[in-house]
Structure formats: structure tokens, C-alpha cells
Design a protein that fits this description.
Strand content: 25-35%
Order of helices and strands: HEHHEEEHEHEE
Helix content: 25-40%
Strand order of the largest sheet: 1-2-3-4-5-7-6
Number of strands: 7
Length: 183
């Protein structure tokens, strides 16, 4: 990507200066795992799963890189086999130093803009009722893209085997996408 193209992407997506959006690589797996761990809001998966995610689902995921090329935020996702027009957003996290700048929204917009070429017309994600930041992120995403939001409990807390009182996971279905501000 040329410098002029990077500036255009940055301005279209409101990407903070010094950051670029990129496809994750296997060598990003450890940094992505640390960002997820340090978020203190996500269910942390094994470090191995983040390596696999960067290998097997790189085309449906995105990372924000700082000037040194290190990941400072990410969105992981996959195309639902039963609904190939649907991107399932698995996790979204931003390093503490980069929070409060709209980076999570920029990552989500950048990823959905890219996977539209794969035929994606909507997204799904699950959010626990106590995760206010994610609720706001996905509600504002739907508003920006002129898309309706449907919510329903996908997994009630009693289904989780860890017995620590896991809150229910509420499924957010957003789409079809296609509002005037679509990037």
C-alpha cells in the first residue's frame, strides 16, 4: 500500500495517526492473546487458539498495527457455515494505551468493509448483559450502517461448565448492512 493509499484508508475509517489496519499473521497470535488477556472483559481462550485464529481465520479478522508493526487492537471473526452472508465477530479488543480513540469501531468498520467482497451482508456477535462497552460498540455500528439489530439470549448462563456464574450470552444480529455511511 502506498503512503497516499494509507492516508486515504486512515481518513475514510478515522484511523488514528500512526496506525494501520492489516490482516493478522501467525506471529501476531501471542500479542493478540495478551491484548485479550489484559482487556479483563473477554473470555480468554488458550494462546494456541489465537495462533490458529491468525492462521485459519485471518481473512475474516483484522489487526491495528502501531508504527513499529505491533498489534494494538484486533477483531476476530469467521463466516458462519450455515449462513455464508454472515460474519460472526468472536472478539474485539484494544490495548489500554489506545483506548478511547474509536479504534474498536474503526476496526469493525474496516473488517466489515473488507468482507463485503465475500458476500457478507450482516454480522452476529454475543455480548453479556454487563458488557456496556460492547453493547455501545455494536449498537452504534448498526446505526452507522443503517442496519436493524435483533437481540435474543443465545446461551443462558447455566450452559457454561465452569460454574462461576457466567452471564448469559445475548446474540446480536445486525443486518442487512448498507446504510449511506458504509465504507
Amino acid at each position: 500500500m502506498t503512503a497516499a493509499q494509507a492516508d486515504l484508508v486512515r481518513s475514510e475509517l478515522d484511523l488514528p495517526e500512526g496506525l494501520t489496519l492489516d490482516t493478522p499473521r501467525v506471529e501476531d497470535g501471542a500479542a493478540i492473546w495478551r491484548i485479550a488477556r489484559d482487556s479483563k472483559a473477554l473470555d480468554l481462550n488458550s494462546s494456541y487458539s489465537y495462533l490458529l485464529w491468525c492462521r485459519d481465520f485471518a481473512a475474516t479478522s483484522v489487526v491495528a498495527r502501531d508504527a513499529d508493526g505491533g498489534p494494538v487492537g484486533f477483531v476476530t471473526g469467521y463466516i458462519r457455515p450455515e449462513r455464508p452472508e454472515t460474519l460472526v465477530v468472536w472478539q474485539v479488543a484494544v490495548d489500554h494505551a489506545w483506548r478511547g480513540r474509536g479504534l474498536a469501531a474503526t476496526l469493525l468498520d474496516g473488517l466489515t468493509g473488507r468482507v463485503a467482497a465475500l458476500g457478507v451482508r450482516g454480522i452476529e456477535t454475543t455480548i453479556t448483559p454487563d458488557n456496556t462497552a460492547s453493547n455501545q460498540l455494536f449498537t452504534s455500528f448498526a446505526e452507522r450502517h443503517g442496519a436493524p439489530v435483533e437481540r435474543e439470549v443465545l446461551f443462558h448462563g447455566g450452559l457454561f461448565p465452569d460454574g462461576d456464574g457466567h452471564e448469559p450470552e445475548v446474540l446480536y444480529r445486525i443486518g442487512p448492512l448498507g446504510g449511506a455511511d458504509r465504507t
